[in-house]
């Protein structure tokens, strides 16, 4: 497999992140793990945005990934992290294959609201499920990695951070290729002119369907990693504000590069953490102003700062 | 001659408005047919029905002897009937080259790859050949929004031809194009069409273009076909002159650029 410049750069950044993990404090490792896991969910949102669809319900797959990891350990004796994450992705794919049949018939606000509706249905089901802890959720069972059980606390935190970085790297490389491959480019063509795509003999609906299912798998991986990192899952993962957060991060980063959601998720996490720390009663306002500033001054997201620098363009 | 496209009693009603009334048309392989008519005569409705964009209210459409009624546009395209549009339908945020590369990938397979790069060397080389064939190689790396209308029309038609269709339907290929560009555009298109051996049906308002390029004319008026025949005969028809073309000077004989 030949790697291009972007893929090599992504690999070097991932390596730097893993090394950084050995010297950074636990709170930072945890913050970065959650940010990177959420960035994976955002990658799912971005994949759909590139095809012209905005999902306000990506929390559905985030939650499915998280709950499958949690339930796998609690009820089915699946303690291996890789197996649990894979199962989470598999369940998300199956559910996306069913929901996608309906959702990909819709566009624009109808798609956005329907995706939100399914996410809220899951939220409602989980809230009513006493066996799954209702609104409190439940704790994720101690997990292993190929039979090795990381030490509780810092050891576990560092392991899940490394796993998240590696998962992020694999997803980033695959998505980098996907955005340049047939389905990825033609999904963008669907966004630009669905009629022309149809008259080239392609089915926009099936392209969007494939994209929707792939996005679900990526988002479920993010949910599963979050569950491993926090050791807990609850119905909030499917709540509409969680899905809104993913759209927020997607807009913050922009669609320009596969690295943008990772950068945006980290910036978002830091802004939120420090806003809560210093202005606990108005942190949402700080986030609002941040998004407002990005939309006004960087309509193509934070990544446009990097791309401008590359092309020598100035604002 | 072998019939490639046939419509039988094709009707389209939009509520009380009858946009197409009992259209019985037979197009033979290799013909270049012009469709004329004033605005609202049903020309575009006819093309839209035949290419699956609009569902007819009644009637039947046969392509190569097989019914294509109710088929999706993509199924009809895959069956060998392509079209271009009155307003060029392109991907505005892509370059001209990338528009053609997308069309090439679509022509190669109905199931594009998830991981193989779309911009392969072979596709780039083929797209560059097509750019030259259509005389738009200067716009290779321009976004289509930055390209003149005539060039955009050519790219639109080139994309339709990439799949090697048996029949090509052009909806007003010279609309929005300057008088100077019209002949050049149509010559380019007709050269490409001849090379591909494609049957052509095109809607056109410019009677000079019609006379110059077609072997047969269908004249539409109020959803019906009021004349069907050789250009000279149709354009000289009194009813056509009254209802479609107005009283033009004497018609020239089609000079066979088609």
Outline the fold blueprint.
The complex is a heterodimer of chains A (315) and B (258).
Chain A: H1 5-23, H2 26-50, H3 59-75, H4 81-103, H5 108-128, E1 138-139, H6 154-180, H7 182-192, H8 194-198, H9 204-230, E2 232-233, H10 240-253, H11 260-278, H12 283-297, H13 303-311
Antiparallel strand pairs in A: 1-2
Helix pairs in contact in A: 1-6, 2-6, 2-9, 2-10, 2-11, 3-4, 3-9, 4-9, 6-7, 6-9, 7-9, 10-11, 11-12
Chain B: E1 3-14, E2 17-28, E3 32-37, H1 43-50, E4 58-63, E5 66-67, H2 73-79, E6 81-83, H3 96-108, H4 121-133, H5 149-162, E7 167-171, H6 179-196, E8 199-203, H7 207-213, E9 216-221, E10 224-229, H8 231-236, H9 238-245
Parallel strand pairs in B: 3-8, 3-9, 6-7, 7-8
Antiparallel strand pairs in B: 1-2, 1-4, 4-5, 9-10
Helix pairs in contact in B: 3-4, 3-5, 5-6
The major pleated sheet of chain A works out as: 2 strands, antiparallel
Put simply, the count of helices of chain B is 9
Outline of chain B, from the CA principal axes? globular
Enumerate the strands of the largest sheet of chain B in spatial order, edge to edge or round the barrel: 6-7-8-3-9-10
Total number of distinct structural domains of chain A: 1
pLDDT under 50 segments of chain B (min length 5)?
251-258
Strand order of the largest sheet of chain A: 1-2
Helix percent of chain A reads over 70%
């Amino acid at each position: 497999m030949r790697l291009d410049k972007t893929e090599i750069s992504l690999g070097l950044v991932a390596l730097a992140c893993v090394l950084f993990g050995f010297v950074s404090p636990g709170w930072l490792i945890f913050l970065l793990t959650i940010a990177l896991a959420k960035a994976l969910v955002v990658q799912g949102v971005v994949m759909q945005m590139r095809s012209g669809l905005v999902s306000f319900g990506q929390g559905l797959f985030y939650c499915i990934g998280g709950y499958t990891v949690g339930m796998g350990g609690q009820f089915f004796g699946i303690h291996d992290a890789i197996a649990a994450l894979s199962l989470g992705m598999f369940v998300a794919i199956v559910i996306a294959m069913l929901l996608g049949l309906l959702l990909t018939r819709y566009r624009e606000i109808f798609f956005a609201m329907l995706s939100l509706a399914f996410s809220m249905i899951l939220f409602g089901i989980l809230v009513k499920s006493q066996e799954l802890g209702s609104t409190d959720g439940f704790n994720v069972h101690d997990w292993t990695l190929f039979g090795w059980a990381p030490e509780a606390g810092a050891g576990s935190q560092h392991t899940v951070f490394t796993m998240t970085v590696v998962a992020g790297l694999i997803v980033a490389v695959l998505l980098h290729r996907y955005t340049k491959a047939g389905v990825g480019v033609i999904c963008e063509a669907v966004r630009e002119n669905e009629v022309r795509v149809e008259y080239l003999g392609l089915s926009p609906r099936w392209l969007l369907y494939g994209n929707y299912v792939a996005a679900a798998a990526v988002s479920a991986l993010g949910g599963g990693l979050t569950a491993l990192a926090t050791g807990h899952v609850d119905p909030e993962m499917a709540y509409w504000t969680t899905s809104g957060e993913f759209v927020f991060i997607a807009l913050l980063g922009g669609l320009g590069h596969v690295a943008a959601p990772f950068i945006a998720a980290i910036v978002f996490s830091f802004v939120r953490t420090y806003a809560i720390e210093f202005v606990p009663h108005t942190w949402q306002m700080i986030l609002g102003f941040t998004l407002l500033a990005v939309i006004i001054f960087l309509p193509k997201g934070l990544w446009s700062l990097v791309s401008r620098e590359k092309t020598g363009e100035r604002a | 001659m072998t019939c490639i496209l046939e419509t039988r009693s094709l009707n389209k009603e939009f509520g009380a408005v009858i946009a197409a009334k009992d259209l019985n048309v037979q197009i033979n392989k290799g013909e270049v047919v012009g469709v004329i008519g004033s605005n609202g005569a049903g020309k575009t409705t006819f093309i839209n029905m035949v290419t699956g964009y609009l569902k007819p209210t009644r009637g039947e459409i046969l392509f190569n002897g097989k019914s294509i009624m109710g088929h999706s546009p993509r199924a009809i395209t895959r069956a060998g009937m392509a079209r271009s549009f009155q307003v060029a339908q392109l991907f505005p945020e892509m370059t001209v080259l990338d528009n053609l590369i997308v069309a090439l990938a679509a022509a190669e397979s109905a199931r594009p790859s998830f991981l193989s790069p779309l911009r392969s060397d072979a596709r780039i080389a083929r797209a560059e050949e097509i750019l030259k064939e259509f005389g738009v190689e200067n716009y290779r790396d321009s976004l289509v929004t930055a390209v003149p209308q005539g060039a955009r029309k050519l790219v639109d038609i080139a994309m339709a031809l990439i799949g090697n269709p048996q029949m090509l339907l052009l909806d007003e290929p010279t609309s929005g194009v300057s008088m100077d560009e019209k002949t050049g555009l149509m010559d380019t298109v007709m050269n490409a069409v001849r090379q591909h051996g494609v049957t052509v049906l095109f809607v056109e308002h410019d009677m000079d273009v019609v006379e110059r390029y077609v072997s047969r004319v269908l004249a539409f008026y109020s959803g019906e076909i009021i004349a069907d025949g050789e250009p000279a005969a149709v354009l000289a028809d009194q009813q056509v002159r009254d209802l479609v073309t107005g009283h033009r000077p004497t018609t020239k004989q089609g000079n066979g650029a088609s």
